[in-house]
């Protein structure tokens, strides 16, 4: 997952992401729906939410104290994060490179049995999605800064993620092995 996550994050860093200035999920408020040591096969999904046909990446999710760590066996790069349930089987995910103290990115994960689907948040795509549905970023408490969509609080993150879940297809599927 790390290689694929790095591949996923690289364009996001260039295109802009859904971010916050500080941590919007505190460890005391986090939920932990994934067991320590869970292995997943991660499949990229196309714009319709169907598997893109690429070979899956292997992902291992572990716990380090209050934070999740996500790693692949190929490159060893770690991302750490927290999850918070925002609806039935829907989780806001706050993540960043493990060796970085700031700079959270947000995504939505939906549990479906032993698998999960992810909605990655690319700022220009989210702007287009809101406009196509007669909304503005201000409706979500979000502003654009340096090509990122910056949320002011967890309520803003929740509104944006639930809106994306309702109006766009997921971009990845994680199947427990």
What can you tell me about this protein's structure?
By secondary structure, the chain is of the alpha+beta class. Helix content is 21%, strand content 38%. The protein contains 3 helices and 11 strands, in the order αββββββββαββαβ. It has helices at 2-15, 123-132, 154-167; strands at 18-20, 38-44, 57-64, 67-71, 79-87, 90-97, 104-112, 115-120, 142-145, 148-151, 172-176. Strands 2-3-4-5-6-7-8-11 form an 8-stranded antiparallel beta barrel. Strand 3 (57-64) and strand 4 form a beta hairpin. The chain is globular and about 40 Å long. Mean pLDDT is 88; it is low at 1-14.
Give the overall average pLDDT: 88
Beta-strand level of the residues, as a percent range? 35-45%
- Using the CA coordinates, give the radius of gyration: 15 Å
**What class do helices, strands and sheet pairing give?**
alpha+beta
Strand elements, count: 11
Termini separation (Å)?
Answer: 13 Å
Global shape: globular
Please outline the major beta sheet.
8 strands, antiparallel, barrel
Provide the fold topology.
Blueprint: H1 2-15, E1 18-20, E2 38-44, E3 57-64, E4 67-71, E5 79-87, E6 90-97, E7 104-112, E8 115-120, H2 123-132, E9 142-145, E10 148-151, H3 154-167, E11 172-176
Parallel strand pairs: 1-10
Antiparallel strand pairs: 1-7, 2-3, 2-11, 3-4, 4-5, 5-6, 6-7, 7-8, 8-11, 9-10
Q: In a few lines, what is going on in this structure?
A:
This protein has helices at 2-15, 123-132, 154-167, and strands at 18-20, 38-44, 57-64, 67-71, 79-87, 90-97, 104-112, 115-120, 142-145, 148-151, 172-176. It has 177 residues and is of the alpha+beta class.
């Amino acid at each position: 997952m790390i290689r694929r996550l790095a591949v996923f994050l690289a364009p996001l860093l260039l295109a802009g992401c859904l971010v916050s200035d500080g941590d919007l999920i505190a460890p005391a408020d986090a939920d932990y729906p994934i067991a320590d040591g869970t292995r997943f096969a991660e499949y990229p999904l196309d714009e319709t939410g169907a598997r893109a046909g690429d070979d899956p990446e292997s992902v291992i999710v572990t716990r380090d104290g209050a934070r999740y760590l996500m790693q692949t066996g190929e490159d060893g790069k770690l991302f750490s994060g927290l999850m918070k349930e925002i609806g039935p089987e829907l989780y806001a995910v706050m993540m960043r490179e493990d060796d970085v103290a700031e700079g959270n990115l947000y995504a939505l994960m939906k549990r479906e049995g032993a698998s999960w689907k992810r909605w990655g948040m690319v700022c220009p795509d989210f702007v287009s999605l809101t406009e196509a549905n007669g909304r503005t970023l201000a409706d979500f408490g979000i502003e654009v800064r340096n090509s990122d969509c910056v949320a002011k609080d967890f309520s803003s993150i929740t509104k944006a993620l639930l809106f994306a879940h309702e109006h766009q297809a997921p971009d990845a599927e994680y199947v427990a092995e």
